[in-house]
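Worked example (supplementary).
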Amino acid sequence: MAKIIVDGVEVDVPPEYTLLQAAEAAGAEVPRFCFHERLSIAGNCRMCLVEVKGAPKPVASCAWGVRDCRPGPNGEPPEVSTKSATVKKAREGVMEFLLINHPLDCPICDQGGQCDLQDQAMAYGVDTSRYHENKRAVPDKDLGPLVKTSMNRCIHCTRCIRFTTEVAGVPDLGAIWRGEDMEITSYLEKALGSELQSNVADLCPVGALTHKPEAFHYRPWELSKTDSVDVTDAVGSAIRVDSRGREVMRILPRVNEAVNEEWITDKARHIVDGLRLQRLDRPFVRENGRLRPATWQEAFSVIANRVKGTNAKRIGAIAGDLAAVEDMYALKALMQSLGVKNIDGRQDGTALSPAYGRASYLFNSTIAGIEDADAILIVGSNPRIEGSLVNVRIRKRWRTAPMPIGVIGEKAGLTYDYDYLGAGPETLADILAGRGSFAEKLKNAQRPLIIVGQGALSHPDGLAVLSLAAQVAQNIGAITEGWNGFSILHTAASRVGALDLGFVPGEGGLSAQEMAKGGVDVLFNLGADEIDIAPGTFVIYQGTHGDRGAHRADVILPGATYTEKSGTYVNTEGRVQMGNRAAFPPGEAREDWAILRALSDVLGQRLPFDSLNALRAKLYAEVPHLAGVDSVVPADVAAAVKALAAVGGTPGREGFKSPVGDFYLTNPIARASGVMAECSALARGLKLEAAE
Amino acid sequence: MAVRKLAPEEIQPKSFKFSPENEAFADQQIAKYPPGRQASAVIPLLWRAQEQAGGWLPQKAIEAVAAKLDMPDIRVMEVATFYTMFNLEPVGKYFIQFCGTTPCQLRGAGDIKKVLERRVGEQNHVTADGNFSWLEVECLGACCNAPMVQINDDYYEDLTVENFEKLLDDLAAGRPVKKGPQNGRRASEPQDAIKTLTDPSLYDGSRIGAWRKRFEEEAVKPADTATEKKS
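After joint prediction of all chains, the assembly is encoded as:
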């Protein structure tokens, strides 16, 4: 630790800290544009100038290390001043230069009200300009459907370039020309190709890069802000949902060091328009082959008539990918009261099951733990599209010091170098047998990590593959004291919650696939849109969007999306997180647990809770770890891996295929979104181009 | 700085491939740097690509360099656009870089510029016969022979309107031309009578060792003055 005096306050900071970080540790605020904690240091905006005692000129505090400061003549700690007159004058000078070419279009700029330049100009700007020449004019760039440009406003902080190059790993952006002609652009103005590209608009300290789908839709001060959690993948990114009146206007990332740092995927962010399109806003009942609007009473009585005449063995329930824990708990309780054992929350047919212990289906290393791994084997997963922020962590780890990464499954651009080992279970068996150089690398690693994706587990032979992976984990010593190197990457936000609840077939119960193939006569479908249900089954669909599930339904009960209800989601690590209500469901749609509670009454099996709190109290009594919001309750990994390894079985020969075919269209909300459709079409085009 | 841009699509070649010797040169340059640092060789490769493509960098050449160095296209584009010596549009067979900085200006570069404007046309514009194009650049470091131009790789110095016109005529006609000063002067020697370094003793050898003699004399002197002060 090094001592340093900032504005008279002595602080003890690590010597590798920059002056800016030291100043923040001492409670001083330093303005900045180019500096960002999670990006490399550029040092080009000069806004963070401070005075260092003994230095002839102000220094850029973001690029000056504490250990670079010399002590005083008698060994006193170095002294830094962030508030002196010199500093203020220097910053005013920098600000004046930045404003020379910055247009005065704040009234029509989407960044207005959330603009670093605007805020800092209040502190350091002067009220008039001494510059009478014409301002610089720069042509706007077309960077695709998500990022809108207004390049006159650019102050060349290069945060966007550093983000795409370092974090996203898709180096699309660059600065061409030089000096005052410098322009930020992509190569020949191609659309950006990253699934994280929207974050550049968040990073932009001015209004040069803004969100295209949201352009001119709102002012930031009109919005009410609700902290929530993302459900578009199983990572469970922390988000903030901003709404105006009944309408969700935008979704922003929140900082959560353990999960998403401060990034979110484009899907999580720009799914917003999908929340208001194609919505189911009233119950529907199928009559003579056509769905007609109905009242809740009508819909319930149709269901009640059907259920009453059906044997419990011929009734089933499937929970979809976006269901909250509370909804599934209510559905499970309802099914139990009806004596139904056919329940399943795994519409993709994954082999994961609570039978082998909680650790058998969790990302045990935790996402932040990826940074400690020194070798990674990815089995049947494309983390870039299945859990983009997990991929970001792997890349972050790989960038600090490249470690061996092996992939079994599909060959894909993952933004880091990896050894492609093979396509299917045979390669995994080879690793187990110690064949090949990568097996050697895994063995030699101190903290090897095996990530098993749903591509490997969603086949009928999934359990055998999972067992094989567990054997490999045992074999290479992935589970040791203090290291859990056996991780499952999920693709659905609801899956871990369903498994935690035990939303799986009871004794003699049918799986989701068996139910869908006609194993039941009455099927309760809680938002499962990615499964084909055989004709002949009476389907009750409770969901939010007029998607595949609704088209197949005989009765539709309109529910609430994740922004319209308070719901618990458990992410792939087993982290319990709670989303909050930012808006109300449209029309007659209701919160899902409440629908199930009302239905239970009609079915004569009144569920024992009248409020969400009562439901949660029951839920927490039954599954205590769900009460620990924002925490991960560690599971016994060694036992789970042992149990899995003992299962054995012979896997097939088919190669692993990622379950996420189109990153942008994985759930009904995304499929309703026009922005996502545009992104998807563009991504398909880019893929075709790359294949040529 | 002059506005630069990529050449329009219709004149961009459809493909670019390094010649075998340039390929070998590229490998040699890449070998200079540690593995994984091959991007350091971007400037020599771009330069060779420019030479091979006839004095300018087509889009496909930029992409070829990027592919060779395993760099994203935009990174190579950044370098190619940053340095003004990479031409992004076609140049004439004789690409004239005309020095317009102060010393040349004082020595009559304005007249040379007029000749260029009259005979070649505006900057960055290739004559109809494809022979010439010109560009005003900053100081080329030959101020003692001002005014001057660089044509392709060579300097042509001590220009006047007459000898520059003749130079252009000769180049256009394919006649051999003399590089360097165009007024008969050798390198950057004085143009007329020598006015400095005229002392013959500089050249007869009598100066050899003279500095040591002077030091020896000076070493004796302080001792004298010291005794004088005492008395």
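Two points are worth noting when inspecting this output. The mean pLDDT of chain A is 92. The longest strand of chain A covers residues 238-244.
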